[in-house]
Design goal:
With about 300 residues, the chain is of the alpha+beta class. Helix content is about 30%, strand content about 35%. It has helices spanning about 15-35, 50-60, 70-80, 100, 110-120, 145-155, 160-175, 230-235, 240; strands spanning about 1-5, 10-15, 40-45, 65-70, 90, 120-130, 135, 140, 175-185, 185-190, 195-200, 220-225, 250-255, 260, 265-270, 275, 280-290. Strand 9 and strand 10 form a beta hairpin. The radius of gyration is 19 Å and the shape is globular.
Length: about 300
């Protein structure tokens, strides 16, 4: 960990993150940054494309980029800053905030997250790269991505309850999927409920599907949930929050630098965002992103 001197920063805000939490958090965070003596330029994209362009501009014009939002906005920033020396600061304001969780950034107290940036201590972390994008947390394909696809098609109910309804509906007819995996050159064909590729341990607001994954070890963690009955899948779900699913006999985890996945009709999600339909190849980009982080 090193201290990175900063004077001029761009703050990129997603005001709709966390059902409006982004705007409220930004209103608290920006004055704190300004009172510390930093020169702050606040930016807000009208859509993902414009937000990405603003992040790329910050990589060249600012000493640092700070995002106020969730994992989707962090992913846009990671795309813009990957391979540069411009550090990324995170003030969590999303629903899941798993990138902040991986970095031990305070997800509840805005002042604490801002102080992490003001302190200027940075570290380098790995990124996963797939579909031309950089992922900070987990790429999931299988049952979880099917739930996301169903929820995105639904108009009711609104908010988190939509995903609960989608989970129940998807579970009714879900069957194990046939995957072809290539793991650092070794090909495997198998049936699975879910295959996840983790740069870090969790996704979806603390679901520790890749428990044990480190964000700076130069490796990807591949987690497989082999076929299990629907009742057992429901019973096992709470174990994702504790990381104890790794002890389930139908769970498998391995570490690789490159993995390719193929499965018919399956879509992948990364950092909570839709990436695209399989097949896909995921590679690790060691130390690709500099981030502000608390002293460990």
């Amino acid at each position: 960990m090193s201290v990175h001197p900063i004077q001029r920063i761009d703050v990129l805000v997603n005001p709709t993150s966390g059902q409006g939490k982004g705007a409220r958090v930004a209103a608290e965070a920006v004055p704190l940054l300004q009172r510390s003596g930093l020169i702050v330029r606040v930016r807000q994209g009208r859509d993902a494309d414009e937000a990405g362009e603003l992040a790329r501009t910050a990589a060249h014009e600012a000493d640092a980029l700070v995002v106020v939002g969730g994992d989707g906005l962090v992913q846009l920033a990671a795309d813009a800053l990957a391979g540069t020396d411009t550090p990324l600061g995170i003030v969590p304001a999303g629903t899941g905030n798993d990138a902040a969780r991986h970095l031990s950034i305070d997800r509840k107290r805005v002042r604490s997250a801002v102080n992490t940036i003001i302190a200027g201590r940075t570290r380098r972390i790995d990124l996963a790269h797939a579909f031309g994008r950089h992922i900070t947390t987990v790429i999931a394909s299988g049952f979880d991505s099917a739930v996301n696809e169903r929820a995105n098609r639904m108009r009711w109910p609104r908010g988190p309850m939509r995903y609960n309804v989608a989970t129940v509906a998807e579970l009714m007819g879900f069957e194990p999927l046939r995957f072809t995996l290539e793991l650092d050159g070794e090909v495997r064909e198998l049936e699975a409920m879910l295959v996840a590729v983790g740069n870090g341990p969790s996704f979806g607001g603390g679901l520790r599907i890749c428990e044990g994954a480190e964000i700076d070890d130069g490796l990807l963690d591949v987690a497989i949930i082999h076929p299990i009955g629907k009742a057992e899948l429901v019973r096992s779900y709470p174990r994702l929050f504790t990381g104890s699913l790794v002890n389930h006999p139908r769970y498998e985890r391995m570490q690789v630098r490159r993995v390719s996945l193929a499965a018919a009709g399956v879509v992948a999600y990364g950092d909570g965002e839709r990436l695209g339909a399989l097949p896909m190849t995921v590679e690790v980009r060691p130390g690709a992103l500099r981030v502000f982080a608390p002293v460990s």
